[in-house]
Amino acid sequence: MFPEYRDLISRLKSEDAHFARLFERHNELDHEVHNMETGVTPADAFAIESLKKEKLLLKDKLYAVLRKADTAV
After folding, report:
1. pLDDT tens string 7-59
2. Which Pfam family would be a valid example here (predicted)?
3. Domain that holds residue 41
4. Nearest residue to 68 (alpha-carbon basis) of 22, 19, 20, 26
5. 2-37 burial, b if ≥16 CB within 10 A, otherwise e?
6. Which of 26, 31, 19 is nearest to 57 (CA)?
7. Which of 6, 34, 54, 70 is deepest in the core (most CB within 10 A)?
8. How far is the C-alpha of 57 from the C-alpha of 12, rounded, in Å?
9. Are 52 and 37 in contact (CB under 8 A)?
10. pTM beyond 0.85
11. Do 20 and 26 meet the contact criterion of CB atoms below 8 Å apart?
12. Total tally of structural domains belonging to the chain
């Protein structure tokens, strides 16, 4: 996710607690969705779609923080 911001992501994960929480939650959701889609965790299509929407919202928030931090540098 966002390879062009790899260094900035590393820095923000250690310096910005809010960013770190968002990033961790996004990764948790990614793992949950993967498990649901592969049948490891039982789930219906609605549950998967709901988690994907939450994940997308987090991705948008992460991107906004990255853009703001990138212009501040």
Report:
1. 999 999 999 999 999 999 999 999 999 999 999 999 999 999 999 999 999 99
2. DUF465
3. 3-72
4. 19
5. eeebeebbeebeeeeeebeebbeebeebbebbeebe
6. 26
7. 54
8. 19
9. no
10. yes
11. no
12. 1
